[in-house]
From TrEMBL, chain A:
Annotated compartments: Cell membrane
Keyword Transmembrane helix carried by entry: yes
Pfam families (UniProt xref): BPD_transp_1 (PF00528), BPD_transp_1_N (PF19300)
Topology in membrane: Multi-pass membrane protein
Keywords per UniProt: Cell membrane, Membrane, Transmembrane, Transmembrane helix, Transport
Single Gene Ontology BP annotation: transmembrane transport
Protein name: Peptide/nickel transport system permease protein
Organism of this sequence: Pseudonocardia thermophila
Family membership noted in the UniProt record: Belongs to the binding-protein-dependent transport system permease family.
PROSITE patterns: ABC_TM1 (PS50928)
Domain of life of the native organism: Bacteria
InterPro entries: BPD_transp_1_N (IPR045621), MetI-like (IPR000515), MetI-like_sf (IPR035906)
A Gene Ontology cellular-component term: plasma membrane
Ranges annotated as spanning the membrane: 12-31, 100-124, 136-163, 175-195, 251-271, 283-308
UniProtKB/TrEMBL annotation, chain B:
Subcellular location per the Swiss-Prot or TrEMBL entry: Cell membrane
Mode of membrane association: Peripheral membrane protein
Family: Belongs to the ABC transporter superfamily.
Chief localisation class: membrane
Protein name: Oligopeptide transport system ATP-binding protein
Alphabetical list of Pfam families matching this protein: ABC_tran, oligo_HPY
GO molecular function: ATP binding; ATP hydrolysis activity
UniProt keyword list: ATP-binding, Cell membrane, Membrane, Nucleotide-binding, Transport
GO biological process: peptide transport
InterPro entries found in the cross-reference section: AAA+_ATPase, ABC_Ni/Peptide_Import, ABC_transporter-like_ATP-bd, ABC_transporter-like_CS, Oligopep_ABC_C, P-loop_NTPase
GO-annotated cellular components: plasma membrane
Domain ABC transporter, residue spans: 8-255
Amino acid sequence: MSGRMIVRRLGGGVLVLWLVSLVTFLMVQLIPGDPAQVIAGENASAADVERIRERLGLDRPVIEQYLTWLFGVLRGDLGRSLFTDRPVTSTILLAAPPTLALAVAAIVVAVLVGVTAGVLAGLAQGSWLDRAISSLATLGIAMPSFWVAMLLVSVFALGLGWFPATSYAPMSRGLGTWASHLVLPAVALGLATAAELARHTRGCVADVLTRPYVRTARARGATTGWLVRRHILRNAAIPVVTVLGLQTGRLLGGTIVIEAVVGISGLGTLAVNSVLQRDYPVIQGYVLFCAAVVVLINLIVDLTYGWINPKVRTA
Amino acid sequence: MTGNSPLLSVEGLTIDLPAQPGLVQDVSFEVGRGRSLALIGESGCGKTLTSMAILRLLPPGLTIAGGRIVFDGTDLLTCSPRELRAVRGGPVGVVFQEPMSSLDPTMTVGDQIAEARLLHLGERRSVALRRAEELLDRVGIPNAAQRVRSYPHELSGGMQQRVMIAAAIACDPKLVIADEPTTALDVTIQAEILGLLRDLQRDLDLAVLLVTHDLGVVADFCDDVVVMYAGHVVERASIDELFYSPGHPYSSALLASVPQSGSPRTRLAVIPGRVPPAGRFPAGCRFQPRCVHNRPEVCGRPQPDSVLAGAHRSRCGRVASGALTVEGVPRG
Ligand SMILES: Nc1ncnc2c1ncn2[C@@H]1O[C@H](COP(=O)(O)OP(=O)(O)OP(=O)(O)O)[C@@H](O)[C@H]1O
Ligand SMILES: [Mg+2]
């Protein structure tokens, strides 16, 4: 991919982030009535309301408020939590590792399971294996992740005792411990994405198999395994990577539910608590952070297009 | 190996679709070592199916229902998958009609040429790529050292077909099967590609099975001809036999429809009607509805493959019995 294209994509990402920051800023402004009163709650004293108004700068002109917020964001300063009084940025960064680990592990599960199943189904179209994978994929999409999480925990943690049942272990407690805590929630979170990927991969592989260059490779003596590794995976990858990129937002959102079920205190928990407490600075920070992650992922997806298919590089 | 047996022999090849048995029926021909054989006929006559069946590369759904295909001592219809793979891309190379879609868009042309060497000779990639560079040079691509790293879309159609040819000869094959290698290309490029194939054939002592519907190409390039019509072989002849004394009304009609190199573009005798779609083949001679010499009482019966002289064979009973003589063309 050309340098100019990367710059263009980066510019697009920055634009999206700016729009998101604008919307998150407006979140507070658009609260009907007196935002300070609403945030403080019905039973708050007048002093409390004033304190919040001052804290959020709601007493100043909107333009000034916006510029203050924007420059704060640019410096990585997202204000302070209304409840703990700690900086929002460090609150989010503290809560992020379990959530990001969970999301990344879920993506790994989804890619390993989904792509493998999809390739097998695509190679064996119409066979019992294909039908079995299609049925499982439908099931995987239909089952709510919190229910899968509960099922996995009760069978593999409480029943068989193979994995710990709850909470998150930081990597500092050892890679094994860290991973064993992640397995069940990651599977629960990644399953639906795996199913989605399996379907897309199957379709893409089936399509690639009809392409003349696959016949060419066969005419050179390629085995099926060789075909898959050298020709099919790469050619089927673009639509699959696109789907994966689209799924990352959903995975991040999905962590909220899984964290609650498995008892991980990460970003999802933070988001839920902040909403319940009407802790607007933290909510704003959470939205902005998630948007940044999604923009970053999509940038990476765009960059991989060019790596996967050289034709895109010049396009 | 087997000294004077043909390099490739196809005997009684029959290809079926479930709904249309006999899509290609009872096709027999031989390709001698270092010889070039043309497979000609109008569109839809089964040339591609026949040529793809040799390496068992038929699209799904089509099955080989009968016959024998022996390449250099290996029976390709009964051998193991491993033996079949050893033949594909090794002693037999294939060039397809559409170079653009027949090349993998995500792989450099160097890697695609090298692929057969990795598969068959177990060469390391770096070694195979050096060989790919030599091959690119051999097929007349300038700047081979840079071009090995090009992707197919960066090359013109003619260059792409040269790449396909380089890949087909990567493992020093004995036979190259080329299915209309120039049909998708500009007229000016067509001659270059055919010239290249002819040079390679001579220099590398290749046998070539050339599928084409261009009789002009046949005259320049080939030793022998197999004429197909609606899934049947109607005539097998040497080039001279075909042009001077064709043995089948269909061959004669094809010859009449070719512009003669000497004469200016006179009106061509287009064969009226069209090839019947598979499943609608008439009984007996499949060409009879379009044949000007049609005698229903004779042509409605199955036509045996008869010897006219030596290796010259025809599936027209009337020509074989001497009841009919068809016209060739003067060649100047
Ligand atoms: N995959 C397929 N499924 C069903 N029928 C097919 C398939 N491929 C080819 N046929 C039919 O088989 C017949 C012979 O096709 P084939 O491609 O061998 O013709 P051809 O002589 O190569 O023609 P052309 O000059 O157009 O390439 C045609 O009637 C075609 O419709
Ligand atoms: Mg064809």
